[in-house]
Amino acid sequence: MDSERDYALPAASAGIALMDQGSIPFKSYNHSGNSHKPVNIALFNHSSATISLSTLPNSFLSQLPATPHYRARLAATSTRTGTNGSVSMLTETIFKNEKSESTENSLSQSWTTLDLSGMMCRNVSNFLFKYSFLTCLYLNHNSLTFIPGDIGRLNSLNVLDLSGNQLKALPPEIGHLTNLKDLLLFDNLLSTLPFEMGTLYQIEFLGLEGNHLSDPISSLYQKQGTQSLIAFLRDHAPDTIQPIEREWIVLESETDPSQVFTCLSYNILFETAQFEEFFVVQLSLHGYSGIFHPKSRARTMSDQDKRTVDGCAIFFKQKPDRKTDDMYNRVMTKDNIALFAALEYKAMNERLIVGNCHIHWDPLHKDVKLVQTAIMIEELELFYKKFPNSAIALCGDFNSLPSSGVYRFLSTGSIENTHEDFGDFTYIPYTTEGVKHLLPLQSAYESALKSELPFTNFTPNFTGVLDYIWFSHKTLTVSAVLSGISEDYASKIVGFPNMHFPSDHIAIMVEFKWKTSKPSFSKSIKR
């Protein structure tokens, strides 16, 4: 094959503009048997002038010309007829084995689409799967008999075309491509699909014609369409990946049971009706009582509709030597909530203030998260004045990373008025004087493990720590913590929830021990 031939020529027939302009060929190699023949690869941007595949007949899509770089040539035609775009200048060095992160980042800024269609390729190099920034990959009309499992690393793909090959099966790792919107598998030798495709929740177009699919996959696809098929694969997936039981990490092995208590925080977003009908009933069988308050939108609803509103709850062991003294509920803006309760442990003459909160979720609203947290801590300080010398355990979904202003404020006791999380917004007095608090709070996991867990929230598009248990380190010590999810298990799934983890958050749990001497820091709190 002529390595210098330019395949970025105008298409002879009328084409559809599936991506923006710019295709610069460069040399790579097609490994077929023992030969090493140079081939051209067309790279181009994917930004505008797109037509949804779902608007085109399947028979047309499955019979697209198998000439090399078909879509790249269509893009060039579109450009010459007026489509706006810019040519991406790439050189032959693009496929050199560069392992530096900076190289891959620079590539990701230059191009996001790769067209290897119609090249008679029999194998795909694993090096291709290093380009996790790819959003469109065209491997159609080749001679591929299998796709490596490493394709699951291309989790930025929106479009994947494997049509016109000789594929008899798809790797389970294709289920990791959770950003896929168009998956074209026309004219292969597929008889079934992996259940892992049930995780492709964003799929809009799935092309399966020209295969020999067996029932129920074939009939479901023909009669009910793509979404029903994806739902079937998800709901009928066998439980082949078992999570490893989370370890209970003990820091102090010899502790008096009467001197310790455990605190569990879990974001499962249950509604008022579920609190009353399920959680109260079930947890009471284990000796727990609970308090609950719905989010603020419940105020404007009918009694029936109020039962569908979620909120925050605190459950505690109701033993003869314990009683509930008081409760404080702070409803903040944007329908978020914090709940406080004061519990007394009579056997040790100790008192504990427990807090549970759900801070605003939007990553773009860092200012809202910080202000909500500041308001909550101000109210917690006022609540503490009613029960001085109490220990404090503050739990919840703070929707804030360890690098956030919220985390810094809670752990250090202050945040400057110029902190970047305030943005350009004005929150007097916070953005004029800064924010301070006098509660000696520390993250339980940071205290025990010298770092937070790898993640407490795990979804196809986000993995990070959002949930924390804060405690008054002058009054309590951490004697044990529940470990996180095993790295091996997490690498095999695309996120939560699943049959083992019913929420996109994981439960975190800490065992606390009262310190023998009880410091008093209530005198410092005079607000």
TrEMBL record:
One of its GO terms (molecular function) is poly(A)-specific ribonuclease activity. Its EC number is 3.1.13.4. The lineage of its organism: Eukaryota, Fungi, Fungi incertae sedis, Cryptomycota, Cryptomycota incertae sedis. Residues 227-505 form the Endonuclease/exonuclease/phosphatase domain. This is poly(A)-specific ribonuclease. PROSITE patterns: LRR. Its cofactor is Mg(2+). Pfam families: Exo_endo_phos (PF03372), LRR_4 (PF12799). It catalyses: Exonucleolytic cleavage of poly(A) to 5'-AMP. GO terms for cellular component: cytoplasm; nucleus. Keywords: Cytoplasm, Exonuclease, Hydrolase, Leucine-rich repeat, Magnesium, Metal-binding, Nuclease, Nucleus, Repeat, RNA-binding, Transcription, Transcription regulation. Belongs to the CCR4/nocturin family. It comes from the Eukaryota. Its main location: cytoplasm. It is an enzyme of class 3 (hydrolase). It is found in: Cytoplasm; Nucleus.
